[in-house]
Each structure stands twice: as structure tokens, then as C-alpha cells.
Design goal:
190 residues, alpha+beta, Immunoglobulin-like, 2 domains, four-stranded mixed sheet
């Protein structure tokens, strides 16, 4: 019996040692898992911080752009010229040249996608600048394909009075159905 008792003790000791080792390994695994969870939470926090910084940067960039426009083009002297197309079946726009008081301020060559955007109701800002108060002359020359696929070059002129405050001018290309010709109109916004 003594020999049986001796065998059980070492076996129980071995089992106890194995159990302790397993407990320590389990505790170590839990600690590693906790560290991994903390690291993942830390990464999520860093990712959230990066996203927040990106948003703040976009907002700051927008604010700086507005401030730059206000400084460069104060409302008291600002003039903006826009272009829109209404229908446009009698004229395929290719380019626009814009002159203010005899000085060329814009010359724009259109792509097919830009013309399509204008036909879908888009409005393009052709020019943004400063003019002193008084009378001014705006000349716009439109180039493209007219009726019967012929080259077409047409201009329109408008004299306008610039007062203190912003001035907005819209150049509009429309169809004149009665004459089967394009019409180039100018509309002033105050």
C-alpha cells in the first residue's frame, strides 16, 4: 500500500502543477486579451481622432476660402458674371470670350461634359472681379455650331451701372423658336 500511496501523491502533485500552470496560462491569456482589447480601443480612438481632424481641416479650408474671397473681392466692388443655357438646341457652345471695359477678363473653352452640365441646368461662374462704381461695358463673344451645323460666332454687349455693392450679371443662351436661331440674352441681378 505504501507504494500505491506514493504513486498518487506525485500524480496529484503533477496534476496540481499542471492545474497551476493552466491557471497561470489562462491568466496570461486574459491579460494578453485585455491588452489586445485596450490596443484595439486605442486604435479606434486614434482613428476617431484622425477623422475628427480631417473634418476640422475641411471646415477650416472652407472658411479660409470664404475669407480669401471676401478679402480679394469685397462686396462693395465685386462683379460676378455667370453663364447659363436654356434648351440650346440651335447652338452647340464651344467657347466664350468675355471683355469688361475693353479688357479681356475670361476666355473659356468647353468640354462636352461641361456643355451637357449646362444643358441640365448648371450655371458657370465665368468671372469674378472688382470694378469701381460707375458705368461699365461688358462684351461676350460666343463661338460654336449653329443651325445646320455651321460655325457660329455671335456677340452681345451690355452697358451697366455699377453702384456700391455687389453686381451680378447672367449671360443666357436660349432658343428663339420662331426664327430657329439661338438668342444671347443678358440679365442683371442686383
Amino acid at each position: 500500500m505504501k507504494s500505491t500511496a506514493r504513486r498518487r501523491l506525485p500524480n496529484r502533485g503533477r496534476q496540481l502543477a499542471i492545474a497551476c500552470t493552466l491557471l497561470l496560462l489562462g491568466a496570461g491569456m486574459l491579460a494578453l486579451r485585455a491588452d489586445a482589447t485596450e490596443a484595439a480601443a486605442g486604435l479606434r480612438t486614434v482613428d476617431g481622432d484622425v477623422q475628427a481632424l480631417k473634418k476640422e481641416l475641411v471646415d477650416l479650408n472652407r472658411d479660409l476660402f470664404r475669407l480669401e474671397e471676401e478679402l480679394l473681392y469685397p462686396a462693395s466692388t465685386q462683379v460676378a458674371v455667370f453663364l447659363s443655357v436654356n434648351v440650346g438646341t440651335f447652338f452647340a457652345l464651344d467657347s466664350v470670350q468675355l471683355k469688361v471695359d475693353g479688357k479681356e477678363v475670361a476666355n473659356y473653352l468647353y468640354t462636352e461634359r461641361e456643355v451637357e452640365a449646362l444643358h441640365r441646368g448648371g450655371v458657370q461662374k465665368l468671372y469674378l472681379g472688382n470694378l469701381k462704381a460707375g458705368e461699365h461695358e461688358l462684351v461676350a463673344v460666343f463661338t460654336g455650331k449653329g443651325p445646320h451645323d455651321r460655325d457660329y460666332r455671335r456677340g452681345t454687349t451690355v452697358k451697366f451701372e455699377k453702384a456700391v455693392g455687389a453686381k451680378y450679371v447672367e449671360l443666357r443662351i436660349t432658343d428663339r423658336d420662331a426664327a430657329l436661331q439661338p438668342e444671347f440674352a443678358v440679365r442683371q441681378w442686383d
